[in-house]
Amino acid sequence: MENMTNRHSVYLLGISGSPREASTAFVIKEALGYATRGSKTKTDYFSLKDKNVNFCIHCDYCIREKKGCIHEDDMTEAYEKMEKADAFIIGTPVYNGTVSGQLKTLFDRCRAMVAKNPDALKNKVGAGVAVGGDRLGGQELALLTIHSFYLANKMIPTSGGPFGANLGGTVWSRDLGKDGAQKDAEGLSTVYRTVDRLIELTIQLKERVDRT
Ligand SMILES: Cc1cc2nc3c(=O)[nH]c(=O)nc-3n(C[C@H](O)[C@H](O)[C@H](O)COP(=O)(O)O)c2cc1C
């Protein structure tokens, strides 16, 4: 009998919330590469580096018109990718103990997507990765901010589970960019465990939808 878990492909979107091509981008690309080993996972990638993403200005155009955001900028590309994905792995550098301003702006701009369609992100599964210059620089608080975004938008947050990847991927770059992250073997293991659980849960949810 065919293994049920192999019947389903997962479309996984990685988002890097760093304004640089450095440790966070490296870790998210590593996560996407890991996700595709021997599985039917397809991946896509969106980086906030060099992107023109304006602040939400709370004009409520999106609420009134239900046609998306009043800004026309690089969020258009992000909206398209986010709507297509089954699962997200969002990475952020830790800035002052939480997510980067760039990533927070992307989160805020998603108000327009869900104002147009409240179910735009419903039941998609999400995990997070936080990369700090310090070993304990606020990675877990940053991850909780990513999980809050998922919860607020009807998504299903997940992590790598107990004994090491409790809230998701936590990486220590020592402020050395990609080279620092690459050397954090323990941190990368939390990312791989998070990806394993993210894919497993996404497939299980797709199987349930098939049966109902
Ligand atoms: C404005 C700013 C604030 C930062 N705050 C923290 C922090 O609170 N905790 C921490 O561990 N690292 C902090 N860092 C260091 C970055 O998290 C770290 O260098 C990270 O690897 C950068 O990610 P990137 O290489 O993808 O840009 C901060 C860096 C910047 C620029």
Describe this structure in words.
The chain has 212 residues and is an alpha/beta fold. It has one domain (4-211): 3-Layer(aba) Sandwich (Rossmann fold). Helix content is 45%, strand content 16%. It is built from 8 helices and 6 strands; from the N terminus they run H-E-H-E-H-H-E-H-E-H-E-E-H-H. Strands 1, 2, 3, 4, 5 and 6 form a 6-stranded parallel β-sheet that branches. Strand 4 (125-132), helix 6 and strand 5 (156-157) form a beta-alpha-beta unit. Helix 2 (23-35) packs across helix 7 (177-183) and helix 2 packs across helix 8 (185-211). The longest helix is centred in the last third of the chain and has 27 residues, at 185-211. The radius of gyration is 17 Å and the shape is globular. The model is unreliable at 1-6 (pLDDT under 50). The structure holds flavin mononucleotide.
Kindly report the CATH topology: Rossmann fold
Number-wise, the strands total: 6
Name of the CATH class: Alpha Beta
Poorly predicted ranges? 1-6
**For this structure, what is the CATH homologous superfamily?**
Flavodoxin domain
Domains (count)? 1
Q: Give the overall pLDDT as a whole number.
A: 95
Tally of helical segments: 8
Shape: globular
Bound molecules: flavin mononucleotide
Q: Mind summarizing the main beta sheet?
A: 6 strands, parallel
Radius of gyration based on Cα positions: 17 Å
Class from secondary-structure proportions: alpha/beta
